[in-house]
Amino acid sequence: MIDIDKEIETLKVQRVAALETRAEQIGKIAAKADLNILEISDAELLKEFQAIAERFRHKATASGPAQV
């Protein structure tokens, strides 16, 4: 049982690291698009990111399962 607990903890750490890496990557892309210099609220920016995510979800659903 202890081995499973260690495995779970290791996976949690890996998940956090992967999320941080992805967040940094998205931040760099946003900066390249000059989003960092626009006068836009966090709420408005979040709304736009959610719309982008929804378009990609819709696209993935229409074309079948996403390939990794």
* Global morphology: extended
Query: What number is the mean pLDDT?
Result: 90
Task: Report the strand count.
Answer: 0
Rg over alpha carbons? 17 Å
Major beta sheet, specifics?
none
User: Spans of 5+ residues with little confidence (pLDDT < 50)?
Assistant: none
The residue fraction in helices comes out at over 70%
**How far apart lie the N and C ends?**
31 Å
| H-E string | HH
Beta-strand residue percentage: under 5%
Structural class: mainly alpha
Tally of helical runs: 2
How would you describe what is shown here?
This protein has 68 residues and is mostly helical. Helix content is 78%, strand content 0%. The longest helix has 31 residues. It is extended. The model has no long low-confidence stretch (mean pLDDT 90).
Architecture blueprint of SSEs:
Blueprint (H helix, E strand, L loop, with lengths): L1 H31 L9 H22 L5
Note the main attributes of this structure.
68 residues, mainly alpha, 2 helices, 0% strand, extended
Q: TL;DR of this structure?
A:
This protein is mainly alpha-helical. It has helices spanning 2-32, 42-63.
